[in-house]
Write a structure and sequence with these properties.
6 strands
């Protein structure tokens, strides 16, 4: 289906969405949907393929996509190695990724901002930025196709 919800009023969107879900479950049908309305796709789809200019850029399940769009903390520091040590040893987490030579993305943090800042401070790590954010489906898509990089 190409843009099956495009142009529908809110009630029509709900009806078509429910019909597609019902067809999938009751008749065990796989339904391929092409759409730019990413928030709607998130309510419908179980698996995603991101295609850009005819090339497959990413394949992921709904759980993998949800994990990528979790809340996160961007940490900027002048010492990545020492900051990683604090994350692993003091905060006991592996749920992070090094984004650049000065930035770390801490995924789904269990500590609040004050605890994080205190842990780095106590360990002598200079933090120049500490900000909470949540990746949106749109920003993940743009990042996947090589558009503007999101944190």
């Amino acid at each position: 289906l190409d843009e099956p919800l495009n142009g529908l009023d809110p009630m029509g969107i709900v009806e078509v969405r429910e019909m597609l879900i019902r067809l999938n479950k009751e008749r065990n049908l796989t339904i391929l949907i092409s759409s730019h309305i990413l928030s709607e796709l998130f309510m419908l789809a179980s698996d995603y393929i991101i295609i850009h200019q005819g090339k497959i850029m990413d394949r992921l399940t709904q759980k993998e996509l949800a994990d990528k769009c979790k809340k996160h903390v961007m940490i900027e520091t002048n010492n990545i190695e020492q900051a990683e040590s604090v994350l692993k040893n003091r905060l006991v987490t592996e749920k992070y990724s090094v984004i650049s030579d000065s930035k770390i993305k801490l995924i789904d943090p269990s500590s609040d901002r004050k605890e994080l800042a205190q842990a780095f401070y106590d360990s002598g790590v200079l933090i120049t930025e500490l900000s909470y954010a949540e990746e949106t489906l749109e920003s993940y898509f743009i990042q996947s196709i090589g558009g503007e990089k999101s944190a």
